[in-house]
Amino acid sequence: MWYPPKVTARTSEPVSLVEAKRHLNVFHEDDDTLIEAIVASAVDHVEKYTATAVAMQTIEAKCDSFADFAHVPAAPLTSVAIAYVDTDGASQTIASADYELRADGLQVSIMPAYGKQWPAKRLGSRIIVTAQAGYEETSPAIKHAILLWVADAYERRENSADEGFSAFDALLCNFRRNL
């Protein structure tokens, strides 16, 4: 079982203030703080909607068993470190040569390397996976969806009814994970 991850905030957004203002046709600085907040909200929404990390960030997730590695709850991942407590109660880190990070589309798993097996861990202890998650370069479709969300939120600053399947949905459908 995976527990809710601890996420280190992204250091930059996939859509810059300049890109957002260009898309909005805003040529003044009066709303810069508002637009930056809307961009951050749009990225958060896209990440929740797709169940993926859009911008690079560090994720620390804990699970009960190495069997949980068949379905890692974050994607896409670029690097992983695995720590656990061995049967003697000592903290251990598994060498990266002893496992493989497998990404089949947006479904991620971690498997023992050929000829290796998972070590025994202390009963009741959790395995800690620290990973770099997110796209190194954000897809134009994802950026466009973020800009659509930003434009809608900037133009209509109050809540509105969901209109069903939209361009936003269409742009993100190939980046959405089924959990």
From TrEMBL:
<dbReference type="InterPro" id="IPR021146">
    <property type="entry name" value="Phage_gp6-like_head-tail"/>
</dbReference>
<dbReference type="Pfam" id="PF05135">
    <property type="entry name" value="Phage_connect_1"/>
</dbReference>
<dbReference type="InterPro" id="IPR006450">
    <property type="entry name" value="Phage_HK97_gp6-like"/>
</dbReference>
<protein>
    <recommendedName>
        <fullName>Phage gp6-like head-tail connector protein</fullName>
    </recommendedName>
</protein>
<dbReference type="InterPro" id="IPR011738">
    <property type="entry name" value="Phage_CHP"/>
</dbReference>
